[in-house]
Amino acid sequence: MTPRRLIVAMSGSSAPQLGRAVLQALHRIDDIETHLILSEGARQTIKLEMNIDPSEIEALGDVVYRADDLAASVSSGSFLTMGMVIVPCSMRTLAAVASGHASDLITRAADVCLKERRRLVLVPRETPLNLIHIRNMETVTLAGATVLPPVPAFYHGPETIDDLLDHTAGKVLDQFGIEHDLYRRWS
Questions:
Q1: Separation between Cα atoms, residue 154 and residue 78, nearest integer Å
Q2: Which of 45, 96, 139, 140 is the most buried (most CB within 10 A)?
């Protein structure tokens, strides 16, 4: 049986910890195969904000691609996946997806998800937002993507930053119908 495949991309926005939280959660699920893409900006941000080598993040992916590899399997609609999450998603990546400018593997894989009507979740990490950001979010939403800002919730009683990261990771997994116990649900 073919495993469920999910593309996880990290672009060069602040908070690569969000991407790691999603990858760690997926890593614990046996029947999901993660296909990971790190942009060059993500690699730099991982070094600067997490003080680790990007290879530590890559170790959480089942299959890892270079962002400049436009011949990778995830660049084709014939390669079946559950969809894709870009976490974190920089405003540059959001703009590229919104305009259909698929110049690297992240934006090409996102374009494939949209054209194949597969789930695409973007986790933008920017504040405040300007009108261009908002219009790009509207454009990708109208095209079928889900914009999921990492807005902290407090109904589950978070005590640590990891609790907040897990909440966002859980919200991402919810979008793909993936069961988890990353946070206590509202009852």
A1: 41
A2: 45
| Residue 117 backbone class (left: φ over 0; alpha: ψ -120 to 50; beta: rest) | left
Q: Which residue has the tokens 């998800």?
A: 113
> 143: alpha, beta or left, given left = phi > 0 and alpha = psi -120 to 50?
alpha
**Using alpha carbons only, how large is the chain's radius of gyration in Å?**
15
pLDDT 10s digits, 114-148: 999 999 999 999 999 999 999 999 999 999 999 99
**CB neighbours of 73 closer than 8 A, spacing ≥ 6?**
35, 79
Query: 84, 113 in Cβ contact below 8 A?
Result: yes
Beta bridge partners of 81: none
E runs forming strands in the chain: 4-10, 32-38, 63-66, 83-89, 119-124, 146-147
